[in-house]
Every structure is written in structure tokens, then in C-alpha cells.
UniProtKB/TrEMBL annotation:
The protein's name in its UniProt record: Antitoxin VbhA family protein
Species of origin: Lysobacter stagni
Pfam families to which the protein is assigned, alphabetical: VbhA (PF18495)
Segments forming domain Antitoxin VbhA: 8-50
Length: 59
């Protein structure tokens, strides 16, 4: 049985939230862009890391 990319994303988000983490709206939008084929998963990770680095520089 294959699952759709949309369902895989929903399950991944649910798993992250069950672990006690919060998935921001911005992160959801980014993952939706991956599902839509607008960007690759690698590009999404690069964006997430850039945001984390920027946030750490502000501290």
C-alpha cells in the first residue's frame, strides 16, 4: 500500500507533535512546497538551517 506525499507529510507532522515539538505555520508551508514539487527536501532543509542560524545570531 502506497501513501500519498500529502498523507506522508501529515503523518510526519503528527509524529513530531506527538514528541512534544511544535510545527510552525511557516514550517508547514515549507513542507507543502516540497510536497507540491516547488522545492526539494534538501532546499527545505537549507532554508530551515538558515533560519535557525539567523535566530541564534539574534540571541
Amino acid at each position: 500500500m502506497q501513501i500519498s506525499a500529502k498523507n506522508a507529510m501529515a503523518m510526519a507532522m503528527a509524529s513530531v507533535e506527538m514528541e512534544g515539538f511544535t510545527v510552525s505555520g511557516e514550517d508547514r508551508e515549507l513542507m507543502q512546497r516540497v510536497v507540491n514539487g516547488e522545492i526539494s527536501a534538501t532546499e527545505a532543509m537549507q532554508q530551515i538551517l538558515q533560519e535557525a542560524r539567523r535566530a541564534n545570531d539574534l540571541d
